[in-house]
């Protein structure tokens, strides 16, 4: 199964890829298109070309009380719109503190890709 991890940001979307048979998570680039519609089209193209079976989004719950907020609502809407384009199953995982942890990771991947990798690691660990 091919799984795409997404660290969704307003300006950049970090991607990571997991093929469950290999049990390895790899950085998979950035989506930096200007508009939301362009971002959705680009992701739909990647999902089709790479035969992605499932999408895992990081879900930025509030640190203090783990409640949803404006960012979680924005990500839910984006995920629903991507589903309409791809018909691919998606799931949300807690992404609190992934950016801080990503800053401590070594390697050439961008901070956003590292965050997406940690999102997939959280998914695998649950």
From TrEMBL:
GO cellular component, one term: cytosol
GO terms for biological process, alphabetical: rRNA 5'-end processing
Signal peptide: none
Keywords: Cytoplasm, Hydrolase, Nuclease, Ribosome biogenesis
Record-linked SMART domains: YqgFc
Subcellular location: Cytoplasm
Entry EC number(s): 3.1.-.-
GO molecular function: hydrolase activity, acting on ester bonds; nuclease activity
A Pfam match: RuvX
Main location: cytoplasm
Class in the EC hierarchy, top level: hydrolase
Every YqgF/RNase H-like domain range: 1-102
Family: Belongs to the YqgF HJR family.
Annotated NCBIfam families: RNAse_H_YqgF
The protein's name in its UniProt record: Putative pre-16S rRNA nuclease
């Amino acid at each position: 199964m091919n799984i795409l991890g997404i660290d969704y940001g307003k300006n950049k979307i970090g991607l990571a890829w997991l093929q469950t048979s290999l049990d390895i998570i790899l950085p998979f680039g950035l989506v930096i298109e200007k508009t939301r519609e362009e971002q959705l089209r680009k992701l739909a193209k990647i999902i089709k070309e790479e035969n992605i079976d499932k999408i895992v989004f990081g879900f930025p719950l509030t640190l203090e009380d783990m409640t949803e907020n404006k960012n979680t609502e924005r990500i839910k809407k984006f995920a629903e719109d991507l589903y309409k384009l791809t018909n691919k199953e998606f799931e949300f995982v807690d992404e609190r503190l992934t950016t801080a942890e990503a800053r401590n990771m070594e390697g050439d991947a961008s901070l956003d890709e590292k965050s997406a990798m940690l999102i997939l690691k959280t998914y695998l660990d649950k």
